[in-house]
Amino acid sequence: MKEQTRCSTIDIAGRIEVLHARYFEHAFAPHWHDEFAIGLIDAGVEQFEYAGAVHRATPGEVILLNAGQVHTGQGFDERGFGFRMLYVPESTFREIAPPSRYGGSGSLHFRTAVLNNMHARDRLLAAHKSLIPVLPCSRSKAAS
């Protein structure tokens, strides 16, 4: 089976990177992103190390990774995993979310790495589908 990646960069209240990928054998070594990574598993199961624990995310679950936090990523089994990811700078969150949603001061952070919430899943999927291009990436983005 062939690895697949599509990505784009958009400017909506700051620079947001958008990625849609499917990996069967690829495994991400420990890495981090300068932005928050908000993803949705759409195939298989992703296993990743993050914040001192091993997590598994299944189709329909949302992945929430804080900026600057080291993590890995790989398929849990031979089925690999597919995911949709948004990389969002903290400045963008501050611009689009009212201060009452995040306390208004200090650094923002997610409290959980895997979220099973149908409303969040549906909204993330709709946003992602409206932003992702149909062409493959010219470069690969370290993800998840």
Keywords:
alpha+beta; single chain; disordered C terminus; six-stranded antiparallel sheet
Give me the secondary-structure topology.
Layout: E1 4-11, E2 15-23, E3 27-31, E4 36-44, E5 46-50, E6 53-57, E7 62-65, E8 71-75, E9 81-88, H1 90-96, H2 99-102, E10 114-115, H3 118-131
Antiparallel strand pairs: 1-2, 2-9, 3-8, 4-7, 4-9, 5-6, 5-8, 7-10
3D structure, described in words:
With 144 residues, the chain is of the alpha+beta class. The protein contains three helices and ten strands; from the N terminus they run E-E-E-E-E-E-E-E-E-H-H-E-H. It has a six-stranded antiparallel beta sheet with strand order 1-2-9-4-7-10. The longest helix is centred in the last third of the chain and has 14 residues.
Given the helix and strand composition, which structural class is it?
Answer: alpha+beta
Strand order of the largest sheet: 1-2-9-4-7-10
Helix content: 10-25%
- Report the end-to-end length measured between terminal Cα atoms: 20 Å
Run of helices and strands: EEEEEEEEEHHEH
Q: What's the β-strand tally?
A: 10
- Beta percentage is 35-45%
Unreliable stretches: 138-144
Query: How would the global form be characterised?
Result: globular
Give the overall pLDDT as a whole number.
84
Largest sheet: 6 strands, antiparallel
The tally of helices reads 3
- Rg measurement, Å: 15 Å
